[in-house]
Queue: 3 jobs
Job 1
Amino acid sequence: MTPREAGWDRVSGRVLFVAVGAAAAVAGLAVALEPSVAAGFSPTYVAVTLVGGFALLQAAGAALARFRGERRQADPPEVERRRAFPTPGAEFDERLASLPRRIGRSADRQRTALRTELREVTEETLVRYGGLTPEEAVERIETGTWTEDVRAVSFFAPGADGGIPLTERVRGVLGTERAFARRARAVVGALAAYSRASRPTGEREPPGGDEATDGNRRAATGGDE
Amino acid sequence: MSEARGPDGEPPPDRRATPGETLDRETNRWRGVNALSLAAGALGVLLGQPGLLLVAVVGVAFGAFALATRPPDVHVELSRELDRTVADPDERVRVTLTVRNAGESLLADLRLIDGVPDALDVVGGSPRTATALRPGKAASFSYTVRAARGDHEFDPVTVLARGFSGAVERETAVHARGDGRLACTPRLDVGDPLPLRALTTGYTGRVVTDTGGPGTEFHAVREYRPGDPLSRIDWRRAARTGEYATLEFRRERAATVVLLVDTRETAYLAPDADAPSAVERSVAAAGELFTSLLSTGDRVGLAAFGPGAFWLAPGAGVGHRARARAALATDASFAPTPREEPFFPGLELRRLRRRLPADAQVVLFSPLCDDYVVRAARRLDAYGHPVTVVSPDPTADATAGETLARLERQLRCSQLREVGLRVVDWTPGEHLGAAVETAGARWSG
């Protein structure tokens, strides 16, 4: 049924209801003015009770619909403020927060994607800030010797979670946040500490500025001839 | 006139009507009255209480009225007036919107929300109003916006109307006649100079080369050759030894520089809701640098790496400066909010390479928050256009994701430096000159 047809159906239903209601009201008015119209029609108590019961059911249905259904109206945007721009990393937070609690293929896929991403950053951080070779970085991650934070270590090396205190484990079971997300945050914290503690190695920006601004002349390494 | 409805038969609340389209929403506001009326009627019948039955009749009458009413016919004419259509940055601009009921029927409940451009803040009054209008009558309201860089187009006005019962709300959008644009062109201030890379042109300029010749900085002494200018002969040596020698200075050359601003949608990032976007900071920095490079005799071009792919070939002169100023202020490629157009970065990078003069170096303005731009910078550098990256930092560290994004950006800066590109890491709130000086210390070290 197309939306237009649905709209028509609703309108014709309404017209029917209004027509029935109007007819009943006219009949009632006629009976009130000229009782002889209703001669031979004597409503028994059962009939009245049936009408009352039907009305009560309708009332219950309408009340339920009132409490269930929300008030609908347009929700226009906040045009008063200029558009706010996203902050880098918001998408990662969103992915971490929306990890399904259930075990399943989709959850596994999401976890693997997050783990791969974090692992790549960890390897590169260890290489650039720790001065390790890529092979050394991989070895440190797999043996769990790249940081002293046991939660961060256990994110990549599941066998290394023996060092996590019991209270922490209990909180992990009872808490709302899954152990995966907490450990992922621990990895980010450990990496941030790692990068703060040292400067990247291997950077070789062209030495010797080339500009000849006043009082700050430096030689270029080439030029045209 | 078309109808648009969601799966439940109603348009979702956040869906906006486009001009010429009508969206009707049943507000459900009479449902409670209907329930109460039916309950009163039922109890009246069952308990034999005529009073309750009478109450129900009143409620049912209202309910029937609400059910039978149709959404109002909305025919309104709108006109917008700005007290100026060209403003300086941060200047207050008053907007007055007038609405006239051009239809035949009374509009009992009319609400209007003006389509304030995305990049403008309302600083006084409200761009919304609610009124009731008889046919032919008009009402107006005004509010104040703060001008910001860009050529801002006002969106259509959202009009919401309800009948007396308020059972159905009709939404439509109407273009306002009159002023629909506000242009704001910041002045190009002369900024601090940026040390350039070693690719120069044949023209005299400020970039000191390793080649000897005329200049001011001493380079070497060589044997006199016939034809050398007398002013460069080392007369002291000639007096002492009787041999002629010629003083060589470092040649100072001009450079050709193309300022390339990353305007892809992924570059519209900011550390918090109130901060300017990385593109906004990039455009401001490009403007400063454009002027300072022109003033030192370099040839400067301007390009956008994003939808629209703006290109202004390197040049010099007052007219060139004016063109760059206008482009940075109002060209859609440098718009303060991202353009919703497809962009093919690989294609654009190839086109950019074809456009770049052989002796051009590139200053790339990018927040460096994705890997593609790093590859693009490396490719341009590898093709013989030395790249300096000025990177406004849009990262924060309040959450794990933000900290990770900051770390990834630092790693990208490090990758670029490792392959010999210069990177100016420009933190929010820092003066560009200070950031350049900090980075320059690294280059000269």
Job 2
Amino acid sequence: MVAPDPVAVLDELSNTVAGAYGAILASVDGFSIARSSSVVNQASHSAMLAAAVGLSHQLVAMGGGRELRQLVVEHDTGLLLIWPIGSQRVLAVLTAATVDQRHLREFVQGQAQWLSGDDS
Amino acid sequence: MSSQTFKILVTGPFAAGKTSMIQSVSQTQVVSTDVLTTGGESEVKSHTTVAMDFGTYALEGDDTRLLLFGTPGQARFRFMTNILKGDVDVVAFVIDGEATDTHAAAGVELRALLRELRVPAVIAVNRCSDETVANRLARSLGALDGEPAVPCQLIDPDSGREVVVEILLTLLSSMESTKAEVA
């Protein structure tokens, strides 16, 4: 089976999950891999995502945990939800505050194998 | 110098030895944000810092404590340097003496940083064992005459501690200058 284009996956996510309006896939060391068509290309975004996830791994240890599962940035106009995807990638989704987070997580989990790049 | 905590910004180009320095001298467990490198950078080294390194160094028999904040080296992570550079007391600028292709950009970065922060700097010239070479490189980067250059091998804790000694001497000198200005 041919792996889908990550941009198509991110566009589908942004177009089908109510409240989600953009997504960025980055490498853990801060390079941009793909983004939905709705997101402006800015190199620093991927670097910031990598830095946030890198630091969050340490915060997980501070909290006594072992695995970072999700990072939530709640701001005045919505949410930025960030997940480690496999061991080498990071996915961030921009959403409205009202997004159905459970539905969004299910979508991401369903696509995680493709997005991780492990099969490419 | 007692009961004092100083913030040291450990910065410099990609793969210069910043993380190695903090890991070699820190007396507490280092907070590290190393991840596997990808693309062309993986040909230079296997891991890279994406947010910060953090370590500490305390003088024995004294309450003086250094907080070592290490930055990522790549330009795409410059926002982390901007976050970490607040209230810095000394800049420890690490440069790989053998990576000559990084020196020109490093000089631009060093000069801009020092012009903005107006704090003393110590230039740690990694993979270098010659004081004259280290000094010459530091001056070519734009370090001032009074700013020490330390030839070092930062995978060696003893060598890393020599950089820390220079940082402490620089702090002492800076404090004395400040006192003299006040008097």
Job 3
Amino acid sequence: MTGDAIVIGAGVNGLVAAAYLARAGRRVTVLEGRHAAGGACASTTMGGNAKAPGLAHAVYALDPALVRELGLVRHGLAFAARDLPLVGLRPDGKHLVISRDLRATEHNLALQSRADAKIWRSYREGLFGFARAMRAQWWNDRRTTAEDALARISRQGTGPFLDSWFESEGLKATLAFDASAASPLAAGSALLLAWRVAQEMGGLQGATAILRGGSGALIDALLAAIRVAGVSLRLGGKATEILVERGRVCGVRLASGETLSAPLVLSSLDRRATLVELARGECLGLEEWSRLANEKPRVASAKIHFLLGGMPKFSGIAVPTVSRFVLAERWQTYAASHAAARLNAMVPEVTCEFLLPTVADNSLAPEGLHIMSVLVRPLPLSPLQGWPQLKADLAARVITMAERVMPGVARLVRDVRVSTPDQMGESDCRDATVRRLLASWNTRISTPIAGLYLCGASAEPASAVSGRAARIAAQAALRDGELR
Amino acid sequence: MRYDAAIIGAGANGLAAAALLARSGATTIVIERHDAPAPRLAGRVIHPGYRASPYADEIAPISPSLFRTLGLAQRGAIMRKAPHSLAIWPECRHLLPFDLASDGLDLLVEWAAFAGRARERALEVAAPARPKLASLLHAVAASPWPGVEKLAEALGDTIGAAIGDPREAAHVAALVLTGRTADPWCDGSTAHLLAPAAGFGGVALGGRFSIVDALVSAARGAGAELVLGVEASELRRARRGFGIALSDSRDIEARCVISTLDLKRSFLALFPWHALPKPVLRHAAQFRVAGATARVLFALERAPERAAPETLRGPVHIAPALDDFARAHAAFREGNLAPRLPLTLRVPSASDPSLAPPGGAVITATFGAVPFRLFDGAWTRERRDALRAQAQAALEMVWPGAGSAICAAEVVVPGDMEDWLGATHGDLDGGEIAPDQMLDLRGWGGSPRTPVPGFYLGGGSAAAGPFGTGAAGEAAAKAVIADLARVRFP
């Protein structure tokens, strides 16, 4: 069978790439190894008919250009909540509610520290301003105008950076979660904070949103878009080899032995899986090959869903329930966890973010039932004891932490589902955070094999549900097709 | 009394600065709170007849230009390169002479060259009078720094990319991290490769005192006044320079002041805090110090008998793998001591016989990743004894039977170093070594000048501080000479 292009993986990025290629008139086949599309966004069901969000429970980095160009709103994409406040839950009940409302936030921060409340406005304006200037680089691949600030912040760790602004441990720990993909002591990890607020959701800078119908709704809208464009989607079609001839990609072999030929292949897997495993190291220099082959993943995250038989009650001051909640003691906790995770040891103390998506969207679960969706980060990718052993323990540790700020929540738990890092199949590899954040789009998406592009989340500056890498890779692939 | 320049601290930096300034014709005074100059270089008596430095056995390299200008060789200081030969224990019990480990040596030579270029650049930056801060920052961040982006990588990855053999990689890490701490898997730890004395320091041929004597004679010979046993207790900004209150109740005036104290102490201890602009206080508060060195000094009645000659010449590192440094650092961060602390054994009396009586020996153990403050209490006698026991066990392992010859032992923890030396938290590097600290927080824009006109940083916390003995003093003196030449000052 032949076509114009093959896309490997039917997650958000794979579907976006396919949609762009098909809209330009290419015959596109999407291969998905599993029996459902969705990847990190696929929803799961719990307790009969409650819909739990997939690995990505909130979206904050979705590329506005592709939402517009693919007409996703027309295909049914809608927000259940467009701008979630960030809530740092504290055992003393003085929770930190950080929202777009500066006055309310200042008032709330003053509960922990007056100095923090006073400086909050300049911190936020400074960071948002710097992040906007960085969009030139992160969105459009142009040089930023904020070069001096960039040089400084790209050497700073999140911890020292936050220390230079704030005094309250709670506030720093809450803000640091967004940069917890890297150790807060790692040089340049502070840049992750800026990357996060450089994004835009629903026209609001730095907003975090939840989609109506769960994050699976994004997949449904994309599936509708590719159906209109005429893409063929093959579920259960696992790619086992990328075929290369004289330095040019020429097709893909499937697990069934079938061969599909096409002059363009876009892979949503990471660089190592694509080039070393699927393309068998073709066209890679020895140095590059050994770098990729020996690349050890650093740290990972886990996803836990609790099905609750009722709405949990928060201790302490009132907090908005449609929020994302962070449970973390101090920023040093992340540093200790990263250090342990890099040595394949279980983290001494758990840090997590959680959402109650059923409060914002009552279509997700039957009356009275709620889903608590927890993202635990950082964790070791493959701890020495093995994940099967640690799985139940991890859920217990999270619920014990939650119990301190939501007394009685443990009794509400009806069902638990844990996706550990080894099941999620994706993790950040050992690539210095700064180097990845500041690489040009071309180096992120292109490969030494002509016609083969990377379009997955690992081609983004930082892993997130975004689709920007897929849009840019598809556009590059189309230009490449025209040149030939 | 009114001086052109007052220098606080008569260490290598202070003496070098004093000699250079006095040579240029400026009236110069050096104020030292200890009774003897350069306590860090000189060492102290640990047992009748035995001397050792509580801080370090080797001396960070002195730049050749400083050596020549001050005529240190004529004054009796002859430096010899510290031996590189080293061994690693305990997993691989055999010796790995470092001279043969060419990959690792290449890496270190390359980075030592980077550090040398950075030092040269720091001196260049010091010379012109007050260029704009932004252009300074740019100048410093550009070429001399071996690709700023390299600094942002993890030390383990940098070493791993150059060296395939894990034992040799552990050697290099041990050499770089002796008496320090870093997580080799954390981005940014490569900055440690820039730090001083990464095996490229030296030992003074005529004993440690020869170098101190040479520096003192260079400073005095040029006409600088040296006041010992007196502390500068307060600095006041006066109309034309500074008023300095001394602990012997004298009051002197100086047109400009070079502080060789660390950045935190320079601003937070010398000045009354309300006298400083807010951004300066903020900078001083942001600056991070991380003392991590503990030493055990042993006096031995007789030198180890059954000893391989290499182990007497070079340092012996007891640090089997990179992961051990990562574990030790994680414990350090939490105010804990790791069960297996990396440590280095040296026999300073083998290269400097003046340290011990004939037949005797001085052996030192240098620990890294020892916290200044323990999370669960003070540095009690029991805890010090535990460190000593660990050092003694290592000593017995390397030189069987040597333990019975020990006649005295002294344990020095970071808190002692703070008390004796005045280094905040006992940080011998003058500040934590990390990319942002090296490029942005040490001093202002790579220059020894500070936002307080007439006040200069010439110590370990200054931009040139980590690049060798006397380098920061040299840079500060150059800046002062350039600025004094201008008519209206400050």
